[in-house]
Amino acid sequence: MSVKMKFISKATAAVFGSALLLTAVPASAQINSVDGLLNDIRQNAAKVEAENRQRVQEFQANANQQQAKLDQARNQLRQLENRAAQVQRSFDGNRVRIEALEEQLRAAQGDFGEVFGLARSKAAEFKALLDSSLITSEYPTRTRVLGRIAESKALPSAEDLNAIWETMLGEIKAQRQVSTYQAAVANIDDGAVQGVTRVGPFAVFTSDNAQFLSYSAAGVESGEDAPLLARLPSQPGGQISSAAQKVANAEAGQVVYAPLDPTRGELLKSFERVPSFYERHWVQGGNIGKFIIIMAFLGVIFGVLNFLRLFLVKMAVNGQKRKAQASKSNPLGRVMMAYDGAQSDNAEVVELKLDEAILRESPKFEFGLNLLKLLAGVAPLLGLLGTVTGMIQTFQAMMIYGTGDPQLMAGGISVALVTTMLGLYAAIPLLVLHSFCASIARSIQGTLEEQSAGIVARHVETRGVA
Length: 466
Description:
3-stranded antiparallel sheet; two-stranded antiparallel ribbon; 5 strands
């Protein structure tokens, strides 16, 4: 009997497996018969059916709500379409009325319409000219009346017509003036107002340190009170900045030379493309140029120190010539001390010992001369190497990109030219230092040989007398 029940339980579980998964039976409520199992399945099925009916009802209720919202949206759309049609009809009617009024205005103007149309066009042209003028930085609001006349569709008044020629005369007058005024500079002290000096419509710079400024009409054209002046990133310097400073410091009636830019700022802006000393010598020269600069710097320092050392040695030798007491602090004194140890010998031995002492001193004089000579010879060769490397880069750029864009070849050409210049810069001072050091070394060597010959001569005379 137990085997049969087990078989029925397994078959029932296979048939109603899905229903059994819906309800977890606690451990204390074990099913011990088929009837209990069927009752449990029926209860679960009824529960699932009730839940499904509830879900269907909720779905139907939501569907009814969605339909109500859809109907409401369609009603709003129809109302908006009706409103748009009314606005369009009103717009069309207003446009027809405006056209009729404009036609009446043209008829009423008669011949004056062409005159006022010419005044408006000239006001617009003159406003564009003044907006680009450097003088507007001093009078930023002077073109507003011209803009109002140019944009107005009504007849200009007599005051507006007078404003056109008055503004023209003001521009003519300002073009011959050197004026100092207060203006905001965009990139100096966060746009703070400071004194600037204007030379006609040709140049403008700060009054305190003569820094040239660029002018932009963007603030005038947009109607905003934005700064119209900004400091140029690269200043011309030299005589140009000096002349600007003299103009800023000049008194009334004093005649001084003033910097003028006939291109009204474009020529001064071109200084931005001029490389600085650092860019030209360190950046454009490439790695070879940097190596030449480092080599020249170290070589010049070594040459100067060697020159000072030899100069001090020469001064010490010249001082020893005037003293009878030998000192070992200078080469001549050490040579004289070598003679003191050989006074009892014959002339040949004395001469040989003096020559030996001079030979011991000679390498000290010649120390560093070969290095200076080597650096002076290598520097032009490195410059030539940079020239060849730069030309190779140039030809490679021409081969890849063609010759249409010169900027693609500018890098190679700059390396070719700058390294040659740097090589000459390094070789010239190194050669001069080598020449000076060699000259002092030869002078010291000659002094030692001269004094040595004198010592031998006096020794011979002394031995002969004896």
